[in-house]
Amino acid sequence: MFRNVAAETDSDRDVVIERPNRDKASSKATKAVVILLLLVSAGLVAVITAGGWEKLAGMKAISIGYVLVYLVMAFYVARWNRGVLPMAAALAIILGIFAAIAGPEWFNRDKSGFTNPALDADFLGLLTLLVVPVQVLLIAF
How far is C-alpha 37 from the geometric centre of its chain's CA atoms? Predict the structure, then answer.
């Protein structure tokens, strides 16, 4: 009824798990590209958040959350952890939609009555629209 746990752990030490796909150049290149895209996405969102801090209505926590989650995901992708890539793709879809909707709105701030954020609104609009293709690439990889 009871198993000898010590005996099982000794025999498990002799088992070596081989992951041949991790040694392929294409797998290493894909991993590097995904890490780069996650870091670029986190950087873009951080600059947009910092530059438009005063004008982000209710999105400050979500923007900071995206930066932190993308940095953690980049760390886990670097360590070959499972399950990170589908979550990164799902979050990239959501962020891409937000960026596609919010990007043109930064350009609409040139009318009277609007105050300028810390960075130029047109520059923030450009960065926000730049997030969209980065997220599409992240989904593709």
Answer: 7
DSSP 54: G
Q: What is the 3-state secondary structure (H, E, C) of 114-128?
A: CCCCCCCHHHHHHHH
CA distance 66 to 35: 15
Residue 90 to residues 1, 63, 113: CA-CA distances in angstroms?
45, 16, 37
Q: 80 φ, ψ to 5°?
A: 65, 35
Q: Could you tell me which of 95, 87, 82 has the C-alpha nearest to residue 136?
A: 95
Predicted pLDDT of residue 115: 75
- The pLDDT tens digits for 35-57 are 999 999 999 999 999 988 877 77
Q: Measure the CA angle with vertex 14, ends 10 and 19; round to 5°.
A: 135
Q: Which of 59, 100, 92 is nearest to 73 (CA)?
A: 92
